[in-house]
């Protein structure tokens, strides 16, 4: 599959975001310095690389499984289209989402598989998927989802500790009973694209794990108006904080605006695939800062405008509202889909 190649190599004349590299194995061992590094990365930019995570082969199998699915004829993929009701699971066709305030439509397609469906397989919780996915659910998708979720839970335990929250406080917002919006995704953008694959947005979940082969992912540092590329590093996951975790932490952890542009330099001639896993809170969990549980969070909330970290919705309601707005294909939808980063002045959406 040519689109999965890492060559031609990433050019060295484009601006690159200076992300911290976090060693997962050091976190597993409870290394205090690495925990500090992770906390610093999540507070500053909300993006970091993760190495030694042990899921590289699982991710490679996801690229093949989902890459093959996205290569199916359009009519077949459309049988699984997510629709306009605010549901994220299934297929998102090209041109369904606005990427900027002028109403420019996106050129990316994705396939999303619900964490709930992967973990309960063969019991269906949300929806059905094409045979290219169901035939690999047990040996590819479910292990990827389970391992990615475990990684995020370890990262959350570090954040609990560093935020002064009681142990388990962030975990329990992601219960294993009931439904949640967590999902695995593969994004594909065509070769020689002339517009954004995914417009500026912040992720609306808790934590995202992104496996990149070709470049194109860009992030904007808080207080800057410049886009910086995130250079794919072999064997490294790009991790980022989503809006829900920014809200729970009263803004201490940053959910930063990012987008997907055509790959830089010679890489632009190829189709680009990425594989991601999104941890999202349980659908019934109220999205609200945890200031009653941590003095650090309460101090942060007390300095923010009233209501900033209290959108007045459950995680499930909020996610579906955002997706519905994104698909309105209008300037109004674009504005309504903005997440916690609206305060930065960047015109962003949430995904
Ligand atoms: O494709 C990527 O590198 C990132 C995708 C992304 O930001 C998203 O799906 O929310
Ligand atoms: Fe994203």
UniProtKB/TrEMBL annotation:
One of its GO terms (molecular function) is oxidoreductase activity. Gene3D superfamilies: B-lactam Antibiotic, Isopenicillin N Synthase, Chain (2.60.120.330). PROSITE patterns: FE2OG_OXY (PS51471). It comes from the Eukaryota. Transmembrane segments: none annotated. Keywords: Iron, Metal-binding, Oxidoreductase. Belongs to the iron/ascorbate-dependent oxidoreductase family. This is Fe2OG dioxygenase domain-containing protein. It comes from Antrodiella citrinella.
């Amino acid at each position: 599959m040519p689109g999965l190649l890492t060559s031609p190599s990433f050019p060295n004349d484009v601006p690159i975001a200076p992300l911290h590299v976090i060693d997962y194995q050091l976190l597993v061992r409870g290394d205090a310095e690495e925990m500090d590094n992770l906390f610093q990365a999540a507070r500053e930019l909300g993006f970091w690389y993760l190495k030694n995570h042990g899921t590289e082969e699982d991710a490679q199998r996801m690229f093949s499984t989902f890459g093959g699915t996205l290569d199916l004829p359009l009519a077949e993929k459309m049988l699984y289209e997510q629709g306009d009701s605010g549901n994220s699971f299934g297929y998102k066709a090209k041109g369904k989402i606005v990427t900027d305030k002028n109403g420019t439509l996106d050129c990316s397609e994705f396939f999303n598989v619900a964490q709930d469906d992967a973990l309960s397989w063969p019991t269906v919780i949300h929806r059905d998927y094409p045979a290219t996915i169901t035939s690999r659910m047990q040996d590819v998708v479910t292990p990827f989802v389970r391992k990615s979720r475990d990684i995020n839970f370890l990262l959350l335990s570090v954040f609990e500790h560093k935020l002064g929250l009681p142990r388990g406080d962030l975990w329990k917002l992601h219960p294993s009973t009931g439904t949640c919006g967590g999902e695995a995704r593969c994004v594909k953008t065509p070769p020689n694209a002339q517009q954004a694959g995914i417009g500026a947005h912040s992720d609306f979940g808790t934590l995202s794990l992104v496996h990149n082969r070709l470049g194109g992912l860009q992030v904007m540092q808080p207080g800057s108006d410049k886009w910086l590329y995130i250079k794919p590093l072999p064997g490294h996951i790009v991790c980022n904080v989503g809006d829900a975790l920014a809200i729970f932490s009263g803004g201490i952890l940053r959910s930063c605006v990012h987008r997907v542009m055509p790959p830089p330099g010679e890489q632009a001639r190829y189709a680009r695939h990425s594989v991601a896993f999104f941890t999202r809170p349980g659908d019934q969990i109220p999205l609200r800062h945890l200031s009653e549980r941590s003095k650090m969070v309460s101090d942060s909330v007390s300095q923010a405008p009233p209501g900033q970290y209290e959108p007045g919705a459950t995680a499930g309601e909020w996610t579906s509202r955002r997706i519905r707005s994104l698909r309105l294909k209008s300037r109004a939808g674009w504005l309504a889909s903005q997440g916690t980063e609206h305060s930065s002045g960047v015109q962003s959406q949430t995904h």
